[in-house]
Design goal:
It contains one helix and 21 strands. Helices cover 1% and strands 30% of the residues.
């Protein structure tokens, strides 16, 4: 069972999109519709027939924004909000995957913020409170959060994720006077939001991304933690046979540590689409502190590299700046969030807010206007150049 302690801000309602249980071999445990019990809006006086009932949690339709597939109930501060899953027989459970409430970005504040998990009334997760990340309000990525219940799981108190590492600090302001360090960010979802390319109006890409923790150690990432919107060049040819096998420049290449391959086989490339920003998501199951991000720009065609971009942590902007186009060197450019990491080359340190190269931003009816050299005056997808890189 799960005892829900707090929501993300809505004072009246709380809900989830889905719950999955996994067995000893990592298999998904199939549950009957009546296996789940808990409160719902139908418990309110003069309320009946609301479809957001507890059984929707195990319907299997989890990556959705359709609230007909979600569970919602009244929220009472200090109240007892418990979801119980009854198994018909003794079953080994190694993990739970929880999908938070995801109707819209605004409605995600009805999601669960903290909960406790018990099995036959015995506390799991070391008896600690589990922190759930807020859902995105979109289906841009698999927002399910895995709670590891296996014997190897190590449950630590993640409330100290903002602690600084020890060591001699770097005087970053002496290295680069214009640089301003943000406080060490910590969160579940790191997003690279791409505003423009280095000149190509139709494609944008990167060779690689690396994140480093507060101790200056690289954070190892799995392919399942990385996604992009649009995903890759493949979205242009989903209904065609010309890309049988698929273009290899997919988001997982961003974290495979091959950053100097000018053939682009180990890079990510995606189309620039009208009224759609390009995003890369790095998603964690617990809050992660980042002291530094290394970015390797797209090298096969430098004009397709990232130019203006922002870094968001749990939807809050923590950095905004510019990348340089690839110039033959495969050294990364660095976004720094701490003065207590290993010494770095100041030439590769990115300055914040576009640094000393101040730019004028033009808007038209609240929409940002791009540089004429980067964005065609009239977007015409019919003249988009074809690009394909497949395995032989």
């Amino acid at each position: 069972s799960s005892g829900i302690n707090a929501e993300y801000g809505d004072q009246d309602y709380i809900g989830l999109t889905g719950v999955e249980l996994f067995g000893a071999d990592g298999e998904l445990i199939q549950l009957p519709e009546d296996a789940v019990a808990g409160p719902s809006l139908n418990d309110l006086e003069n309320c009946s027939g609301d479809y957001r009932t507890p059984d929707k949690l195990i319907s299997g339709c989890n990556i959705t924004t359709d609230d007909i597939q979600m569970w919602l109930c009244p929220f009472y501060s200090g109240g007892n909000h418990v979801i119980t899953i009854n198994l018909s027989q003794s079953t080994e459970i190694t993990a739970i995957k929880i999908y938070n409430y995801n109707k819209t970005s605004e409605d995600t504040y009805r999601g669960v913020k903290t909960l406790k998990v018990t099995l036959d009334d015995k506390p799991l997760c070391g008896g600690q409170t589990v922190h759930l990340r807020r859902a995105p309000g979109t289906t841009h990525y698999d927002f399910g959060q895995i709670i590891d219940l296996s014997e190897k799981a190590e449950w630590n108190d993640h409330d100290d994720v903002m602690s600084l590492s020890k060591g001699d600090p770097i005087n970053v302001r002496k290295l680069i006077p214009d640089y301003e360090i943000s406080l060490l960010p910590a969160g579940f979802v790191y997003q690279i939001y791409i505003y423009s390319s280095c000149g190509d109006p139709y494609y944008v890409g990167l060779n690689g991304i690396q994140l480093f923790d507060e101790q200056g150690q690289e954070i190892e990432l799995l392919a399942s933690q990385v996604s992009a919107v649009p995903d890759s060049v493949n979205v242009l040819y989903q209904d065609q046979q010309v890309m049988r096998g698929g273009d290899v420049r997919t988001p997982d290449k961003l974290i495979n540590h091959v950053t100097s391959d000018d053939s682009a086989r180990n890079s990510w490339l995606a189309p620039i689409l009208p009224n759609t920003g390009n995003r890369v998501y790095l998603v964690f199951d617990f809050p992660v502190t980042v002291s530094m991000i290394k970015l390797y720009n797209y090298s096969k065609a430098p004009t397709r590299g990232v130019k203006e971009f922002g870094v968001l942590v749990d939807d809050l902007v923590v950095y905004h700046g510019l990348l340089s186009p690839h110039n033959g060197s495969h050294e990364p450019e660095i976004v720094l969030f701490s003065d207590r990491v290993a010494p770095i080359n100041s030439q590769s340190l990115l300055t914040k807010s576009c640094g000393v190269e101040q730019q004028v931003e033009l808007t038209n009816n609240k929409r940002k206007m791009g540089d004429s050299e980067n964005t065609p005056s009239v977007y015409d997808s019919s003249v988009r150049p074809f690009t394909s890189l497949v395995d032989h």
